Amino acid sequence: MSLLIVGTMAFDSIETPYGKVEMVIGGACTYASWSASYLTDKINMVSIVGGDFPEDEMETLNKRGASSEGVEIVKDKKSFFWAGKYHDNMNSRDTLVTDLNVLADFDPVLPDSYKNSEFVLLGNLTPEVQIKVMDQMTTKPKVIALDTMNFWMDIAMDTLKQAIARVDILTINDEEARQLSGEYSLVTAADKILEMGPKALIIKKGEHGALLFYGDKKFYAPALPIAVVKDPTGAGDTFAGGFMGYLDKSGELSYENLKRAMIYGSTMASFCVEEFSLEKIQALTDEEITKRLGQFKELTQFDL
Amino acid sequence: MSLLIVGTMAFDSIETPYGKVEMVIGGACTYASWSASYLTDKINMVSIVGGDFPEDEMETLNKRGASSEGVEIVKDKKSFFWAGKYHDNMNSRDTLVTDLNVLADFDPVLPDSYKNSEFVLLGNLTPEVQIKVMDQMTTKPKVIALDTMNFWMDIAMDTLKQAIARVDILTINDEEARQLSGEYSLVTAADKILEMGPKALIIKKGEHGALLFYGDKKFYAPALPIAVVKDPTGAGDTFAGGFMGYLDKSGELSYENLKRAMIYGSTMASFCVEEFSLEKIQALTDEEITKRLGQFKELTQFDL
């Protein structure tokens, strides 16, 4: 199979109670591709970077099976930059800087070799860009997942709903599910959102895990309790990359497999938050992943 | 086996976005006893009420196997009264009235028939009262569980720690675990709290479920996503009653059984919040409970 991932590749400056890093590599496409690369080996990245994006970072991803043929490099401009500071509880953060730079001109053109990707992950971007990517697929993908945020609900709800109507899986957080549906109860919100088109809704609840709604079925993947969460940046993208990477590897779309994908996504995200930036998820071993999957089993499984 | 439950029996006036009820029956001992009564049939209640507490409420509990021999009735005084209003998100509430009434004089004297109860649930009360109850046991109970809150940490931390040192299981919420341990990370907080004496710590996370820490083991019982949460009052006590009721019924203290008890407690709590006051948990059938246990299995179980 093959997994197309559209999203930002960027620089981040991040401050948390555990420290501060400046101009480190970030971006949804980067986090999701790294995460997926442990599970599948045919990743088609679609993004845009400036001349300042390190070539060796791209090459490392290439070596892990992530093609950058769809990553536009604008030599005389800068990459997208985000700076943020997390509050003491790590559940909220202030955005200090958002420099769109090259992202302002992002108009993705898919290489021909990408156009029949079976799995598609549309990272959080303008809904117009997400639709443009779907429009360029020549073969109907087996699964399209879309990630978005409240910002697009505020300024482009109609276009966003058009995009959502075309995807199989939507990933948003609990507040966004409430905003999108106008319902406070997550169960009622999920019912309404599934009527908008997607077959599945994943509600991300940060340190509390993630909920999968699929028809009238519900599955809860808790977050693994972590002793020290150093930096939550990218955890949602790492979850999405692990989730889609697992689906792409297995190629199977049963509900049982979606549940397994939730656990793989949560496993990858649990590593992400343990160190700043990509530090931890750039250096994992299969043994570590297998061990952590076992911890998820221990955390959740019981016999009645 | 037999389960001793100490706690308030009270009147509540409750307002939530779904409605308002005045002077309904509440109290930790009431909720916990009702919950436990579906799982075990030998409950020893210890509480204090005024002459205004309805006799038929007590009789209904008696018929379900909950002895009120240890409930002191002060005929010329009023029962404990609490009034609260929940915010729109149901996760926080304002206390409008707390009239201690008879509770100000609560000095529990255990009937002889209670003193060899194998399981003991010390509901949220002054740590002095919790200690007095433990002091009166003539046979060492198999399990003592203690529930408490930030209020006692603020005004009686030393006595509270003496009580905690003597119990097997402590149940508190996430903020209280942080306050008690001085640690933000729940994993580190749990390590410190388990060093204070208890063998197990249950961290209640409201709509996000509950975490069991036992040695270096962790188990997560999510809350079942409920379409309409009408009134969260008593959910924690209902959880505790279900948890201890299951342990008392089975009499087995293995880790596997503690996990099952977590699921039984969560199941009972999921009913509690669906209606105001005790309305739902006074009218359950075994079939409803069995069905909901199955829903918890569906919500959490997967194969890797």
What order do the helices and strands come in, and which of them pair?
Two copies of one chain form a homodimer.
Chain A: E1 3-6, E2 10-16, E3 19-26, H1 28-37, E4 43-50, H2 55-63, E5 66-74, E6 80-86, E7 93-99, E8 119-122, H3 127-135, E9 143-147, H4 150-155, H5 157-165, E10 169-173, H6 174-181, H7 186-194, E11 200-204, E12 210-214, E13 217-221, H8 235-250, H9 255-272, H10 286-300
Parallel strand pairs in A: 1-4, 1-8, 2-6, 4-5, 8-9, 9-10, 10-11
Antiparallel strand pairs in A: 2-3, 6-7, 11-12, 12-13
Task: Give a short synopsis of this structure.
The structure is a homodimer of 304-residue chains. Chain A has 304 residues and is an alpha/beta fold.
Question: What does this molecule look like?
Answer:
The structure is a homodimer of 304-residue chains. By secondary structure, chain A is of the alpha/beta class. Chain A has one domain: Ribokinase (UDP-N-acetylmuramoyl-L-alanine:D-glutamate ligase), CATH 3.40.1190. Helices cover 36% and strands 26% of the residues of chain A. Chain A contains ten helices and 13 strands. The first copy, chain A, has a nine-stranded mixed sheet, with helices on both faces. A four-stranded mixed sheet of chain A has the order 3-2-6-7. In chain A, a hairpin with a 6-residue loop joins strand 6 (80-86) and strand 7. In chain A, helix 3 runs parallel beside helix 5. Chain A is globular, with a radius of gyration of 18 Å. At the A-B interface, helix 7, strand 13, helix 9 and helix 10 of A face helix 7, strand 13, helix 9 and helix 10 of B.
